[in-house]
Task: inverse folding
């Protein structure tokens, strides 16, 4: 079964925005044990759309389209799909009434321009929209079932989950794909591949291995297209043994989620004291619902004056050692912990760049500290990253959260590339 | 001139990661006054790759490929491109020596597995990699110039800028595309389209208008494919007049950048006091280099206890009005300002959900306050957003920053959909 996706719109073709619908489509399909054969993007261009529809409908069993169902002049999907199927367009008075009603319920009058959304290809199955004004539709074009969905992500996602995926699941006779992704922090992609090379050979006929650098993480994806759950689980267990503490989670488990989960399990709370990451660690720890069970809050002490005013870093320490130093990081962590009452506190202070580096403290120098009830752990990194300021900040958040993760798992929070080190209790 | 892009890799096909290279490609091309005809993605699958290469090289003048040049078994690009061109693969000892040297310079020994990266299609132009181990290459396949670039974003981006774009610019005889994007906060896409409908008609033969909801922003893109700068500028001026304060910036100007720029121009400083956004506003204000000139820091007071401990919100206020209230927001802003010494302070407290809503304060209820030397402004929003928790948090950051933007521009910070309102000085 060949399934393809066609995302339309100048804004995705021109890169004005990230095409989240295509990513959602691919993800959902894969998690349903299926996969897309190809994904395509074209602009709001009649000729390109026609050509692409002709080629795809000739080879695919299912085509899902995103976008082009809006009310404006660059919305061409209904017209072009009708053309590909060789059917005329019909105006549906009932859909226009429904659109007007929807606007009314939100306290607006439907603009006349939205009447266009009631014009659809003859013979299509109309799919009512629960979240917006654009109705979606399904139409058979040659051998291919074409689903035309709105481009607004939340509307697109509802249609995918409620209409498209059930349809595809029923049509497909494909076996279940089994997939596990090990999420690794602290190793490069090539290094990982050499560590796991033997294992890759051992399982070569049953499990496909893919590596992916998703900075600063690397993902190891173990896939059995034949649905061999036992082989994937076996191999995952052996891979985890070889990689040790570098594996922080699997599949959709982000590092922030892993840390939050450990905190909740242990009835522990956390605070943060951030300089160069400017609130990013706090934002990460509050991303998930229920964060308040383990995250109390924190300080963003971007200026030196605030490091002193809010966290009591003595001016003498700043003068002698600088804001980016072990001394400052440790005081930030200790005071962040005591002033918030949290069980543990992470501190991050560094030079994110592009300016501010010196020969002794180049851009990328970051000091981390983790304060607990009885100890303060410190670690210094000099990130030499091609991604510049955003990457230094992002990697710093990972490094800090990873220290918390290791600590909460009972390991040395300063563990680095040496497998299985246990923390010495003081 | 037909230019297409082919992104390869199971991880992009399966949606494991956002395909930033395709977005970068499309953006760069468009900003160079050119545009892609189509963008494609296929997995690490020999047959699909072969089929896609055959189709694209038959119709395109230039094909840029991303990924598949790594050292692991799922890297197929060299092999498949050689196949499409009907040439054999050659091993380049000099490239392998270069790769070994690169690893040595970083303090590592090159794994034997990386030798694979020295095997390239015969007759290709080797493009040395300044940022990683995978050499890129260019090969003529039929009528099409194929560029094979590494998938690691920073390496890909260097190759695009230094090798591919200069090549394409020289080859193309296309006129310059003129494009301006107005960035709007506070109007929906359809509403914008009806406000600008007449203008769209007036300029129909010279300027193409595209709308894009990039929640919570909407973008109005004015494009002249014929290079008519005057028409685009004229229309942009008239559109800005109709949209008034809703336009906060243009092109690559983010709201955070606009606020930072205004602060710097006025020698003003800002702090933040965040609850439900948990550090996101601070992170946004520290994203750009040089943020320390206008951003001093802030508080993340996620728990009620910290609202009291760090910002002096009286327990009686929390008990009487709740953490999500005008009273709490105003105290957070006032105390955030005085305790940091910043010129102005934004406070955000709300219910991001999915839990914690009540009939009086449903999920999406957020109170904002802006404290200045002489005034405190308050605004309440009840965001009814399909995107859930992440969207409430993201929109809240926009709303807060927009209040600062309006204030710094001398307008009423609480302006809402009424054009041109001037703030009354107290």
Result:
């Amino acid at each position: 079964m060949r399934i393809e996706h066609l995302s339309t719109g100048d804004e995705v073709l021109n890169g004005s925005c990230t095409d989240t619908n295509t990513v959602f489509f691919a993800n959902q399909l894969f998690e349903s044990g299926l996969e897309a054969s190809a994904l395509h993007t074209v602009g709001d261009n009649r000729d390109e759309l026609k050509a692409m529809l002709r080629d795809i409908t000739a080879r695919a069993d299912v085509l899902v389209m995103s976008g082009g169902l809006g009310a404006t002049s660059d919305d061409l999907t209904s017209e072009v799909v009708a053309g590909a199927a060789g059917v005329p367009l019909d105006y549906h008075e009932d859909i226009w009434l429904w659109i007007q009603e929807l606007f009314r319920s939100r306290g607006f009058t439907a603009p006349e321009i939205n009447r266009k959304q009631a014009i659809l290809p003859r013979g299509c199955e109309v799919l009512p929209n629960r979240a917006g004004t654009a109705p979606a539709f399904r139409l058979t074009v040659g051998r291919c079932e074409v689903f035309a969905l709105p481009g607004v992500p939340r509307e697109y996602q509802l249609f995918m989950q409620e209409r498209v995926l059930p349809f595809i699941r029923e049509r497909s006779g494909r076996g279940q794909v089994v997939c596990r992704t090990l999420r690794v922090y602290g190793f490069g992609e090539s290094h990982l591949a050499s560590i796991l090379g033997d294992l890759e050979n051992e399982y070569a006929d049953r499990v496909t291995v893919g590596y992916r650098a998703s900075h600063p993480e690397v993902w190891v994806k173990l896939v059995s297209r034949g649905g061999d759950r036992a082989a994937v689980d076996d191999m995952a267990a052996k891979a985890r043994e070889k990689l040790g503490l570098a594996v922080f989670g699997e599949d959709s488990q982000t590092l922030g989620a892993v840390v939050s989960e450990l905190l909740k399990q242990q009835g522990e709370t956390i605070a943060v004291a951030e300089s160069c990451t400017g609130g990013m660690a706090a934002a990460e720890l509050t991303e998930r619902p229920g964060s308040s069970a383990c995250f109390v809050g924190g300080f963003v002490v971007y200026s030196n004056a605030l490091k002193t005013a809010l966290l009591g870093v003595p001016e003498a320490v700043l003068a002698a050692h600088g804001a980016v130093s072990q001394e400052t990081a440790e005081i930030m962590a200790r005071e962040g912990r005591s002033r918030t009452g949290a069980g543990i506190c992470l501190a991050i202070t560094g030079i994110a760049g592009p300016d501010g580096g010196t020969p002794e403290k180049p851009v990328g120098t970051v000091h981390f500290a983790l304060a607990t009830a009885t100890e303060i752990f410190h670690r210094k990194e000099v990130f030499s990253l091609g991604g510049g300021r955003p990457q230094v900040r992002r990697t710093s958040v990972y490094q800090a959260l990873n220290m918390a993760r290791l600590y909460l798992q009972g390991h040395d929070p300063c563990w680095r590339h040496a497998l299985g080190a246990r923390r010495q209790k003081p």
About this structure: The first strand of chain A starts at residue 3 and ends at 8. Chain A touches chain B through 106 residues (CB under 8 Å). The CA atoms of residues 5 and 39 of chain A lie 5 Å apart.
